[in-house]
Amino acid sequence: MAMTVDLPALEQTAAPRAVSARWRHARPALGLLLPVAVALGWELVVHLGWSNGRLVPPPSKIFATIVELARTGELSRHILATLWRVGAGFALGVVAGTILGAISGYWGLARRLLDPTVQALRAIPSIAWVPLFILWLGIFETSKVALIAVGVFFPVYLGVMGAIASVDRKIVEVGRIFRLSGPAMIRRILLPAVLPAYVVALRVGLGLGWMFVVAAEFMGASEGLGYLLIDGQQLGKPAQILAAIVIFAILGKTTDWLIEIASAPLLRWQDAFGARGGA
């Protein structure tokens, strides 16, 4: 018997999928609506004379400041210095947090021995480390990278330890029933279960790394976006301060987006509500 194909039904099914695909591609642009609207609104307020824009310059003046810094070559120098510090500190913090978090999560005795000390250290304010790192490591790059690594370490450690410790025991028992070896258990059961929380921990750690780099660049830095903030404050240049803040926001969002993009293929198996963009 010949099979008939209902073309109208196929077209009706394909149309919502095409609309959904276009909506998914356009969705990232929605995140720009709020900052663009705020920027245009403030530009209009200053243009109409409702504010002189002295303490909070309009976006046009901030953009002109960024252009001028880029023209003189200062902007690239400061951005590269900050990116190097954040990248080095992030790498060190991720390695240490992943290793110690995996040990504490997988081995109960290590968790009882190690975790109380780590939790106590986590409660110490970041600024409290500054004089100690200056005394130990000096005011140059080593102390700055170490401070950033401290900020990155704690969320990565907590994310890994908590994810491993909360893996469903029934899944582990299934692996034991199939007589999986230790490496196979980690690769086929623990790693997929831990990976979503690990990606979130990396993103939180990266955000703290960008926060800690400002404190790090307060420690006698002669270049970096944090130095631009201090220089703008001392010279009374609010446009320079806001320009540095805007660049911080752009770089922070870009690096967070890179982690999200890099981890997306590893999390494609997820069938959670949020994994497919929600409603």
Model description:
With about 280 residues, the protein is mostly helical. It has a domain at about 80-225: MetI-like (MetI-like fold, Orthogonal Bundle), CATH 1.10.3720. About 75% of the residues lie in helices and about 0% in strands. The chain is built from eleven helices and no strands. It has helices at about 5-30, 35-45, 60-70, 75-105, 110-120, 130-135, 140-165, 170-175, 180-215, 225-235, 240-265. It is globular, with a radius of gyration of 25 Å. The protein starts with 6 loop residues before the first helix and ends in a 16-residue tail after the last helix. The model has no long low-confidence stretch (mean pLDDT about 80).
Number of strands: 0
Low-confidence stretches: none
Based on CA inertia axes, which overall geometry fits? globular
Gyration radius, rounded: 25 Å
The H-level CATH homologous superfamily of the domain at 78-225, spelled out, is: MetI-like
The quaternary organization reads as single chain
User: Between the first and last Cα atoms, what is the distance in angstroms?
Assistant: 41 Å
Tell me what portion of residues adopts beta-strand conformation: under 5%
H/E element order? HHHHHHHHHHH
Compute the number of helices.
11
Mean model confidence by pLDDT: 82
CATH class of the domain at 78-225: Mainly Alpha
Main sheet characteristics: none
From the coordinates shown, what is the CATH architecture of the domain at 78-225? Answer: Orthogonal Bundle
Structural class of the secondary structure composition? mainly alpha
The helicity comes to over 70%
Which topology of the domain at 78-225 does CATH recognise? Answer: MetI-like fold
